[in-house]
Amino acid sequence: MAGLLLAAISVSAVELSWAQDGNAGINAANNQVRSYFASGTQLMYAVGGILGLIGAVKVFQKWNNGDPDTAKVAAAWFGSCVFLVLVTTVIESFFGIN
């Protein structure tokens, strides 16, 4: 009986020695995820610039063809680019990215 009790105590002591503070892991994950946001926001700005160029070409083609809905298409492309830039700016300010 005493041997079984000693074995149980030694097993629980080994398990406790392997246990780590969860705060250190959470802080490490937080720092790692925040480091990804800087690259992600730069990527969103680049995608916004490319989409803006594509939209400008499409609007120019419609304008040259004399399509009557050129203003609507221009507003849609411009609005989507502005939305993408605003979302990126909000993400930067929300997560405190410098």
From TrEMBL:
<feature type="transmembrane region" description="Helical">
    <location>
        <begin position="43"/>
        <end position="61"/>
    </location>
</feature>
<protein>
    <submittedName>
        <fullName>DUF4134 domain-containing protein</fullName>
    </submittedName>
</protein>
<dbReference type="Pfam" id="PF13572">
    <property type="entry name" value="DUF4134"/>
</dbReference>
<keyword id="KW-0472">Membrane</keyword>
<feature type="transmembrane region" description="Helical">
    <location>
        <begin position="73"/>
        <end position="97"/>
    </location>
</feature>
<dbReference type="InterPro" id="IPR025408">
    <property type="entry name" value="DUF4134"/>
</dbReference>
<keyword id="KW-1133">Transmembrane helix</keyword>
<keyword id="KW-0812">Transmembrane</keyword>
